[in-house]
Design a protein that fits this description.
The chain is an all-alpha fold. Helix 15 packs antiparallel against helix 16. The longest helix is centred in the middle third of the chain and has 39 residues. The C terminus is likely disordered.
Length: 471
Amino acid sequence: MNKQNDIGARLERLPMTRWHYTLFWLLGFGLLIDGFDNYIGGIVLAQLEETGWTNNYLSAAFSSSTLIGLFIGSLLAGFMGDYFGRRSAFQINLLLFGIASIAAAFSTNMIMLIILRGIIGIGLGAEIVICFATFTEFLPQKHRGKWVARLSLIGNTAPPIATAVGFIVMPLLGSEYGWRSLFMIAGVAAIALWFARKTLPESPRWLASRGRYEEADAILKEVEKQVEKKNGMKLESIKHEEVLEHTEDAKLRFASLFKGSLLKRTILGICVLIGMNISLYTVTTWIPIIFVQSGIAISDSILMTTIILLGAPLGVLLASIIIDKFPRKWFGVSLLVIIATLACVYAMQTTELMIVTVGFFLILFLYVYVCFASAVYVPELWPTEARTRGTGFCTAIGRAVAISTPFGVAWILTNFGSFAVFATIGTILVLVAVVLAFIGIETRGKSLEEIGELEGGKELLAENDKKDIYV
């Protein structure tokens, strides 16, 4: 019986326990703080504009530094998570994020704030990648999609919380200390969570992938003891047929993501996340601008945008309820086609009622897809040995495309109008749906060990196991 897959099989037979719930909340609060700091950027810039600290160019540099930090953080998180361990990676990045946020509260000029915002972005980008990949590895397959989606739901409650806190705190403390207090709140919360997370265990699957079976076994024995004590009965023994054959102590190099069966997964993950980022950032950023350019009063535009964006948390909530009820691959294809269709229908509406109604459902289904793509499907695609590097690389490429997307949208909107913008989004999403339909792999109902072995994964692991390089 292979030790690595024995660890996986023991995790698969566990019911949801207090251990899982503790992980859920500690990781979830990390995503909440992460989202809070990410979404305060706009209201911070608004107050800094009022005080004369910034102008359009400095504000653009502030926003760009955040995106560049997110890009770097996604890449670094992948290497750190696979090399140093999941727990070490998210603790290091959470500490970086917390210290940089507190430092940002004491910025003496806009250049200093822009630099610190880039460092904050590195921590933000890493936290998202590591949290979803880590939680995925702790969960049995029958609960994986639902509970990872719920983790995403916590993170997506951040926008209204950030706005509400800013609405209360910034006028109360004034233009000098209001925006500083938001960075201080985020930083102190991150440091407090860093201390709370020190009790979190390392991923047993990652420990086993590195040959540290005794440590993985010790963690699982403690959890199994708790389960047996609570239920008053012993857990069933692992059957030999439940444990897949696997090359022990296999080591996947980063270069392995670009050849063989993993190359197809890399292409798949990039396409799925490019579709998400292009549609997400275009729709949420440009909806209010298009409203104003269409002659809708700015006050009405803000109200309509607020109503439409209520679909975001509801979409993630819906995803957490239904995501395990459908095959992952075809669930993703269906969502892409629905979003593409709604985008085109939305662009043809002329009355405010229909704009809000269709826009609400567009955002709702878009956020179901966001949850599916970034929280559930892409982290599932990889063998444990390469999970955070694969997820981090695909996330980084998706974000790189998001950085350049606004310039393309601006050109299309200027030369061809709003319908052409949404028609272009729809076309891209249909192309992603075709890619997913042809090269997508099915992950629902499979353990992470089974997914790792799909389509030649075992042979690739065996090939890399002959080499002593792990980068």
